[in-house]
Specification:
Layout: E1 2-6, H1 10-22, E2 27-31, E3 43-47, H2 48-57, H3 59-68, E4 70-72, E5 75-79, E6 82-86, E7 91-95, H4 96-110, E8 113-115, E9 130-133, H5 140-144, H6 146-149, E10 151-165, E11 172-179, E12 182-190, E13 196-203, H7 204-209, H8 217-227, H9 229-232, E14 237-238, E15 251-258, E16 262-266, E17 272-277, H10 292-309, H11 314-344, H12 346-349, H13 354-362, H14 370-376, H15 378-391, E18 410-412, E19 415-417, E20 421-423, H16 438-448, E21 454-461, H17 478-494, E22 498-504, E23 531-532, E24 547-548, H18 551-571, E25 575-580, H19 585-590, H20 605-622, E26 629-634, H21 645-658, E27 662-666, H22 684-694, E28 697-700, H23 707-715, E29 721-724, H24 726-730, H25 734-741, H26 757-775
Parallel strand pairs: 1-2, 1-9, 2-8, 5-11, 9-17, 20-21, 20-29, 21-22, 22-25, 23-24, 25-26, 26-27, 27-28, 28-29
Antiparallel strand pairs: 3-7, 4-7, 5-6, 10-13, 10-14, 10-15, 11-12, 12-13, 16-17, 18-19
Length: about 775
């Protein structure tokens, strides 16, 4: 096979040598615009895992790369005059020039033809069976065939400059310095016996405010030297991008995603030549997770393997390559996006104490979790867990195992929760005439005994007309109050959990069937009139039409919320949550998708907040001052023109000013046009923003399914509580089970269940031991 690689970076060189090794009869050419053995850039980083992949692919080049590596396990994080160190991370640094030289030498030894100082302007200059377009993030080939590849290029909001220094760092170093213009950060690591990479980064607004956009290249470097002088120990910063002038050395990172990776070029003789994207031409991952070169090399490995697995069928090989790599790359790019956004918003976390700031940084991409940190550096994590526990009010005994963050207490007003786990409100559609019966006693009682700190009722409606379905519970008469009191008394008598009630009004989503008979579909008979912010039909062509609430409607609804709150006080609930999410009545006022009013309750954000805030003020006035109120909001409608996370921060600030204690941060269900992006902990970033920008405690929800998730979220300051829904449906004792699973035994069990505690803990202990033995 005749193969041409356009671009002599890691992807092209490695693919060329691997294909030549696999089949020496292949004619492989790598075309590079730079001079022989010349390159730009400083050092690159690999993980130990990447090294294993290289060894399996080509032992000879891997051995040479390994011999040139500088290996370290430590990460140092400097902020506000203090340093936090975490170990066990297993990174390797190598000079980019040295890496390319090794690959060039290996390629030449195998018979790959290397062509230098050739600027390729068109792939059509080459007659080949396979062309690899690995010509970088600014790929000429990708641009030419953009209609096929469909690239999505997102220029991120920070500016960065890639520099070097003779200061040799003994750990991967993150340094943060606050200036009068804002925060700057440096990413530094040693890559050979003489040099370290030193990347300086700042948000665009900070970079411009500092005047770096108007400085010469030399003045910009001098600025960085002064700013980070304490870390450089008198050493200079250097640029090897001599071709760049002025502020052009500062660039914005392009996140590149391509819908398709293969273009079949039609040739004059009727044949086609596949032109395949690889490396940065196909995808980029922000330097803060050190995966750009890793992705390029693993692209080369996978395409080589795919061709070997499909002999004589190149189209099938290319399909397999893109199927496999697109999944792997997306996973890395998602982690890189999380990391990128963290560094773009350092000021969001800069008020954290250095201990929590460092933990937040280490877990920013979600690739490193709480238990993963324990496996890397158990001593570091134990010390950090003790730090978290002390700040939650626990008296720490150094002789005992540290307390995982999810099992630390949390106090709001006069209510102290024993841990950070909440049984999320979950509609059960099992009430009769709005009355919570034996089913609810069983459902909520079992979960209260299962270890969670706070058990929330499903949305409990403030009027018959405000119910989602005929099976939804209410709290608008004394019979319902007494039924709830029975359940509250059981929870208080038989457990040390607290119990909260979520009050709401279904609005345009009322008068529908129970979920197992058709979610959101109107009743087949017996429908009642429904009301919302504006006239609305939730399911187009299916749902009832609601009518826009009149002034009398709003006055009556507010009075209903007050009456329900008074009944909740009588029933003895510990906590109250106001439901302003998911397209129900109060949520419908907040979103422009559902509020087209032209009076004082529509239009501007302040007007759309007016009625929900009026309701909140009214219930806060009758709810006991020593008991908390949380507010559930949809932080993202997932529809253009709807609520965004930016809006959610402003909504949270308004409720905070009104006296809310916490924001329960959910998303979606406001419009059937929504296109949510799911994944583990997918709504936690919204909680993070609300908590750390609006300055109010939050509850995180959404695909939180294991102790590791809860511990990571709480420890990183992304939320104060975690609401867990579906796992609690499968296992009412989810919290007790998760404690045993991670080996935390200092947790109280119900006396009736205590006999099962040690058996469960021993079983999980055996599993952990067997897993450790297998990994060893």
């Amino acid at each position: 096979m005749r193969i041409v690689c356009i671009g002599g970076g890691p992807a092209g060189l490695y693919f060329g040598l691997l294909m030549k090794k696999q089949n020496p009869a292949d004619e492989v050419t790598v075309v590079e615009r730079n001079r022989p053995y010349d390159t730009f850039g400083w050092g690159v980083v690999f993980s130990d895992q990447t090294l294993g992949n290289l060894r399996r692919a080509d032992e000879a080049s891997a051995a040479a790369i390994l011999d040139a590596f500088n290996h370290w396990d430590d990460i140092d994080i400097h902020i506000n005059g203090r340093t936090q160190r975490s170990s066990g991370h297993g990174f390797c640094g190598i000079g980019r020039k040295r890496l390319l030289n090794i690959l060039q030498e290996r390629a030449e030894a195998l018979g790959v033809k290397l062509v230098f100082e050739t600027q390729v302007t068109s792939d059509e200059a080459y007659d080949a069976d396979l062309i690899i377009a690995c010509d970088g993030a600014n790929s000429v080939v990708r641009t030419k065939y953009a209609a096929t590849y469909k690239p999505d290029i997102d220029l991120r909001s920070c500016r960065f400059v890639w520099l070097g220094t003779e200061k040799l760092f003994d750990a991967f170093t993150f340094a943060f310095e606050k200036t009068e213009f804002g925060w700057f950060q440096a990413h530094a690591y040693r890559f050979d016996d003489h040099m370290s990479t030193f990347i300086v980064e700042a948000p665009e607004r900070v970079w411009r405010a500092a005047g770096l956009d108007e400085m010469s290249k030399e003045d910009g470097i001098a600025f960085c030297e002064r700013l980070f002088a304490k870390y450089l120990d008198g050493h200079a910063l250097k640029s090897n991008a001599q071709h760049l002038r002025g502020s052009s050395q500062w660039i914005r990172f392009p996140r590149i995603v391509n819908e398709t990776w293969v273009h079949n070029r039609a040739n004059g003789d009727g044949s086609v030549t596949p032109v395949v994207l690889m490396g940065d031409a196909a995808h980029t991952a922000h330097f803060s997770i050190g995966s750009g070169t890793k992705l390029a090399l693993e692209d080369a490995i996978e395409l080589t393997n795919s061709i070997a697995a499909h002999p004589g069928d190149l189209p099938a090989a290319l399909d397999h390559y893109t199927d496999v790599r697109s999944v792997d790359v997306l996973r890395i790019q998602n982690a890189a996006r999380n990391s990128t956004e963290w560094f773009e918003n350092v000021d969001r976390y800069a008020s954290f104490e250095p201990e929590q700031f460092a933990y937040s940084l280490l877990t920013r991409s979600q690739r490193i979790s709480h238990e993963n940190l324990r496996s890397r550096d158990a001593a570091y994590l134990a010390e950090f867990e003790n730090w978290i526990a002390q700040r939650s009010g626990l008296d720490i005994d150094g002789s005992k195992r540290s307390v995982p963050p999810m099992f630390t207490p949390f106090t709001v007003r006069g209510v102290t929760l024993k841990n950070r786990v909440v049984v999320s409100p979950m509609a059960q559609y099992s009430a009769v005439d709005g009355i919570a019966g034996d089913y609810h006693l069983m459902h909520l009682g079992a979960r209260a005994m299962g270890g969670a700190a706070l058990v929330m009722t499903e949305m409990t409606c403030v009027s018959p007309e405000g119910r989602i379905t005929p099976g939804c519970p209410g709290l608008y008469n004394e019979t319902q109050r007494d039924a709830w009191r029975r359940i509250v008394d059981f929870v208080h008598r038989e457990s040390d959990a607290k119990i909260g009630i979520q009050l709401g009004h279904a609005g345009a989503k009322a008068s529908t069937r129970v979920s197992w008979e058709g979610t959101d579909k109107p009743l087949e008979e017996g429908n009642w009139p429904i009301v919302s912010a504006s006239r609305q039909q939730y399911l187009k062509g299916i749902s009832q039409w609601s009518h826009a609430a009149t002034a009398d409607d709003l006055r009556e609804i507010k009075e209903q919320f007050v009456r329900s709150t008074e009944l909740a006080v009588d029933a003895g609930f510990d906590w109250l949550e106001l439901h302003c999410a998911h397209g129900y009545l109060l949520s419908g006022f907040l979103s422009l998708l559902t509020n087209q009013r032209d009076d004082e309750y529509g239009g501007s954000p302040a007007n759309r907040l007016r009625f929900p805030i009026e309701v909140f003020n009214a219930i806060r006035a009758v709810w006991p001052k020593d008991k908390p109120i949380s507010v559930r909001i949809s932080a993202h409608d997932w529809v253009d023109g709807g609520i965004t996370p930016d809006d959610a921060v402003q909504i949270a600030r308004a409720f905070k000013e009104a006296g809310a204690d916490m924001i329960d941060v959910s998303s979606g269900q406001v419009s059937k046009e929504e296109k949510p992006v799911y994944g583990r902990m997918f709504q936690t970033p919204f909680s993070d923003r609300v908590r750390n920008e609006a300055g109010i405690a939050t509850i995180a929800v959404g695909a939180i399914s294991e102790a590791d998730h809860v511990n990571s979220i709480i420890a990183a300051g992304r939320a104060d509580l975690c609401a867990v829904a579906r796992p609690h449906l499968a296992n009412p004792s989810w919290t007790l089970d998760q404690a045993a699973k991670i080996g935390y035994v200092d947790i109280k069990w119900p006396k009736q269940y205590f006999a099962a505690k040690s058996q469960l803990e021993r079983g999980y202990e055996r599993e952990r031991a067997q897993r450790a033995e297998g990994e060893a």
